[in-house]
Each structure stands twice: as C-alpha cells, then as structure tokens.
C-alpha cells in the first residue's frame, strides 16, 4: 500500500470477483478494482505535486479479516501553500484460501486543503484532533467529514477551480 502512487498492486492476492465498497460506491470484479487503483495513480500524478500513503496500523481482529489504518497526505498543484490529509480504514475480507474477496473503505476523515498556520502551543497540536489507529475515532467538529473517493476528487477539483483564496496576509494564506 505505501507504494500505491508509484507502482501497481500485486493482484494475485485478490479473487476475480472482488468487491470494493466505500461509503457511496460499490464495484465488483478484478478489472474494476484494477481501474480504481490506476485512476488513483493517474489523478494523483496530475493533481498533486506530492502524494503519499502511510500505513499507520495493521491488525487482524478475526481469522478472515485484516484491517489497515492509513493516512494519505497530498500537496496540490496550486500556487498557494496547502496540504491535505485523508485518513481511513481498509477492511479486507479473506476466503478460506486466503484470497481477498472484499475491500471496504470506511471511517474516512477529510481535511483538504488546509492553510498552514503556526500552532499556538504544543498542547494545541496534541489535543486538537487526535488521530487513532482504531476503527472508531473522533475528529474535532471542524474536521468531521464523511467522504468517498468521489467526494475526495470533487473537493480537489472544486479547490483547484475555486480561486477563492486571498493574497498572503501576515505571511499566511487564508480563505476568503
């Protein structure tokens, strides 16, 4: 997964009838699954100067389920300074042969883009929005946003088309 944006996955671990589920979409079949990850790499290279996926935690709550908590960090190709993060869980269900037949993405939290501002203190950084590797977590109300890949791309597109950012003000980019 960490190399998702630089090279293709190994699809030998998936069944041909794999189902991909996010909060708004369901796709079935290995060809559709391959297309999803091709589209992520393609759009990642076009829309972002930097894009990376970090695996925060991997655990196996039962014999046929693997959970991965991940964080996607991206710097869009825009003339102002911005960085976004997109966190979620990938829940993989395995059949008796150890092949993945379902990939469900859930517990998504989205904060893109966010003007970079200095924190008032270290305590502000620690207590503001604690991330958790657990399937259920709490974000501060300003960051609470349930999303899907489609909403992610729509938000990026709106941001790029928007142009609603004011000029530098006190050294910070602010939204108008």
Automatic annotation (TrEMBL):
PANTHER family per UniProt: OS04G0613300 PROTEIN, RIKEN CDNA 2310061I04 GENE
Top-level division of the source organism's lineage: Eukaryota
Pfam families (UniProt xref): DUF2358
Name assigned to this protein: Uncharacterized protein
SUPFAM superfamilies: NTF2-like
Lineage of the organism: Eukaryota, Viridiplantae, Streptophyta, Embryophyta, Tracheophyta
InterPro entries: DUF2358 (IPR018790), NTF2-like_dom_sf (IPR032710)
